[in-house]
Amino acid sequence: MADRAGDDDKTRRVVFVTVGTTSFDALVKAVDSPTVKQELFTEGYTHLLIQMGRGSYVPTKSEGGSSLAVDYFTFSSSIADHLNSASLVISHAGSGSIFETLRLGKPLIVTVNEDLMDNHQSELAEELADQKHLYCARPQTLHQTVADMDLNSLVPYSPGDATPVTKLINRFLGFPDD
């Protein structure tokens, strides 16, 4: 049994899902769907860890074996450890979650919460997706994004260059591009 646990550690590929401090049941339901879980398993991921925030939807736990092992929690004092151990991060469109994940160089799928009014966070996610730093999805398209993603095509984000973010903020505020 000890040998098997060692083998599991070498082949463990974790997908960490975070909704931040909000409620984003549509994202939790999407990643808990058989379609998305099967796509992740097909892509070689072994574990799905969901930070579900204030949501009311409770994912289905499973032990893995011939499918994805699924676990969840509501909040953590720090998600840094979860981000560090992740092979893939699926996140809400909060700028803190986005930039913390990109700073760590982790592949990222940002899922936009379309239920939020005046959601400028989606503009940030879409701009960073256009620059190929991450993938952007909606809950209903998440399975297709996972199926189609090519993580080798992502461009590392350089945290020292604030120009793209500055341009996005200026555009949002109505200032002309330089």
From TrEMBL:
GO terms for cellular component: UDP-N-acetylglucosamine transferase complex. Residues 14-167 form the Glycosyl transferase family 28 C-terminal domain. InterPro entries: Glyco_trans_28_C, UDP-GlcNAc_transferase. Pfam families: Glyco_tran_28_C (PF04101). GO terms for biological process: dolichol-linked oligosaccharide biosynthetic process. GO terms for molecular function: hexosyltransferase activity. SUPFAM superfamilies: UDP-Glycosyltransferase/glycogen phosphorylase. This is Glycosyl transferase family 28 C-terminal domain-containing protein.
